[in-house]
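Preliminary data (for renewal application), zinc ion complex.
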Amino acid sequence: MLTFFNEHHVQHANPFEQFRGKRVPASERPERVDVVAAELTRRGLGRIVTPHGAALASLERVHTARYLHFLRSAWNAWLALDPQNVERELLPSAWPVQGMRRDVEPDNFTGKLGLYAFDNGTPLTAGTWIAAKTGADCAINAAHALRLGERASFALTRPPGHHAGADYFGGYCFLNNAALAAQHLLDDGLQRVAILDIDYHHGNGTQQIFYGRKDVLFVSLHADPRADYPFYTGHADETGEGDGIGCNLNLPLAHGTTAAQWLAALETACLKMAAFAPQALVVSLGVDGFAGDPRSHFGLASADFLRIGERIGYLGLPTVFVFEGGSVVPELGINTVNVLEGFETAA
Ligand SMILES: [Zn+2]
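Predicted structure:
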């Protein structure tokens, strides 16, 4: 297992986020990846290396050029409005809902910000672009490592990515690392890639990016969106569109789902992936389904993450793991590395 570590992740650090009208301590914070790196090192699960910088053109294979331009320039545009904004949180306040225009980018900064955001819980900071770009570099390098002969690789990065769409950010995500890894594998010459998203939340951004395509199968196990974020996608009847019909499988799970039920859903996911006959797999590795995670309403224990990794390993596919969600709890590093160790055991 070769791990690519995003050492610039610390530059994206906002002390607070909004929750039900309150300013609360941010949950997506730098120590998330540090504890995973420490656990990886403790167990000796392979080398940890720094990624090479990927060309902007590789990001444009997944994200729109105008969205990338916005992300790169947003902080300076925010400071240009008022130098004192350096002390303030950059959060949207207006959004284009259905029936409003999304094709025209407003000149007004507030309008622009709302066009590219889908929630107000994802502050953009001075260091967001460098952290997100370096994170994307990890994912692209991890994908490329398969071509160079690695059986498996891990992009240990934050901010996470699976909520970010082709032209929007939210859910703490700015660039869709899993989608960038999958697209890189295709651009390296593969014909079919599967993405398995095991984060507690639906990977709405990844689904959106590949929804009309037949070269990428997206399979997601997550909390039922009727009960949980991101609320508006993730239902079982979302199966793809156009060429992509049948290439999207959502397995929404009710609050109270036990480990046995979760693992049964994983079996369904694995059968679907095997039938697709992918040449490689990308795993959106979120461990916020852990019973001890404050976000979770599932019953997964630390030992279950070993089983999950093993089952993924039995697919026998070259695999890129991309770090997604998981709150800072004492088991965060253990659970994440359990998936990787389980995979290595089975592979
Ligand atoms: Zn999550």
